[in-house]
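Case study 2.
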Amino acid sequence: MKNKLNVLVLTVFLSAGVSAQSWFGGSYSTSYGVGDFKDYMTSPSWTGFSFEYKSKVMENMAIGVNMGFNFFNKYLDKDSYTFETVTATGAQRRHTSAIPMMATCAYQGPAGEKLKWFAGLGVGTTYLYRYTNFGSFTFSRETWQFLLAPEVGIMYPVNQENMVYLTTRYHMNFKNDELKAQQFISVNLGWALSWGDE
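Prediction:
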């Protein structure tokens, strides 16, 4: 999986034209669990960030790469909890770290508009580390899950080289032998530096 992602990333950079408009940005992320992941982690994540690069390959089409980090943490009061075949009593701490990495493709709105919108899809993988501690017991899971990440967002140019952007991304991490699907929605507010011809 990691080798396939490296090939995707290399292809993106080699295929992006030097004169095409490109941008690199960083964003602050908040995230909210969905489905089975929400059952396990009811609290949202307020600790997250992502970095991304995009380059236009057609009038309204851009490709790029994205990498992020999302940290989820939850404390539960003292009670009896069951994990697989073990039941224990104590205060519980739940923790999940997610590191999504993906190649992206996005359709962008008309170039003449000041406030631009875009919609796209990311394909890649997410490294997941889940840690559960209660009483004298500790259980952890570490795995990679296949990732599809549809996204919508808006961009607002501050000047010729700088812009702010806001996106919502649905991280569809698919079930594997180690964990059920760990899906979450992230909201990302960022700043980007752009260069090249529009």
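The helical segments are 2-15, 36-40.
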